[in-house]
Specification:
Keywords: Membrane, Transmembrane, Transmembrane helix. With 130 residues, the chain is an alpha+beta fold. Helix 1 crosses helix 2.
């Protein structure tokens, strides 16, 4: 696996679940930071900075965001497997998502230091903001 450059993004993130058919909350995209909305026949899930997390759903707060520097070509293989395998070996659970340009993982804030150490041990470069 190619050595990846991964940025630890500042701030806390929240994952929120709503019932199917729920409308995406107004203003969700007004702030900074990654916002991801996924809809399936059974749910609407939103990942957002905690300060912008919508109210009224089932929430799990306390996540930190790590982003692979991209853009990544669609032909690349094993990126998420490498990240997930390294974190699994260290006992760190993750919430994964991808965008057109790159891959993102969220880990519990309490696991961030273990996650960073595991990714570095696997040969990846991890950059933490001051």
């Amino acid at each position: 696996m190619k050595r990846l450059a991964i940025d630890v993004i500042g701030g806390d993130y929240t994952v929120t679940r709503f019932d199917a058919g729920t409308t995406v909350p107004a203003g969700l995209f007004d702030g900074d930071g990654l916002v991801s909305v996924s809809r399936t026949p059974t749910e609407l899930s939103i990942v957002s900075p905690s300060a912008a997390a919508p109210e009224g759903g089932q929430t799990e707060a306390g996540w930190r965001l790590l982003t692979v520097r991209g853009p990544l070509e669609f032909t690349l293989t094993g990126i998420m497997a490498s990240l997930a395998g390294s974190l699994a070996a260290a006992g760190v659970s993750l919430f994964a998502l991808s965008t057109f340009d790159t891959d993102h993982i969220l880990v519990h804030a309490t696991d961030l230091s273990r996650a960073v150490a595991a990714l570095r041990e696997a040969g990846h470069e991890v950059f933490e903001s001051a």
